[in-house]
Amino acid sequence: MFFRLLFLFIALPLVELALLLYLSSLTDWRFTLALVIVTGFVGTWLARSQGFRTYQRIQQELAAGRVPGHSLLDAVMIFVAGVLLLTPGILTDLFGITLLIPACRAYYRKRLASWFKSHFTVRAVPNGAWEDSSGKSEVIDSYVVDRESERADSPRKID
Length: 159
Prior knowledge:
Radius of gyration: 25 Å
Number of domains: 1
Structural class: mainly alpha
């Protein structure tokens, strides 16, 4: 984990800087600067339009009573794409733009879903009740007591 963070915060910016300087030496510094600015604008436009579509899809799925799993993952990827496009550089811009293309995002979603399934366990709880190790369900009824009602000895039941 340490080396991944080291790569992320030290090596990646150095590689990005080297690529920008190399591109600048091949072309012109104005072209390199224009490329960074144009990818920022195009990325912002794409992130905004894709984000709005994803937001609408989440609303539709919630209204239909479905859990918007894929749409929420798309929303996270679009957010990450926006962050990457704000970072000046060629590699981060290219990866950010691929996160905004729906076909590429579907591939990344599939890979992320398989990673989540291999690293996390999801356990369903029937009827909202917790089960102990013996498999028996138990519902706990509770009361909330605040300072005023504690003095008056009249606890309130919250349903």
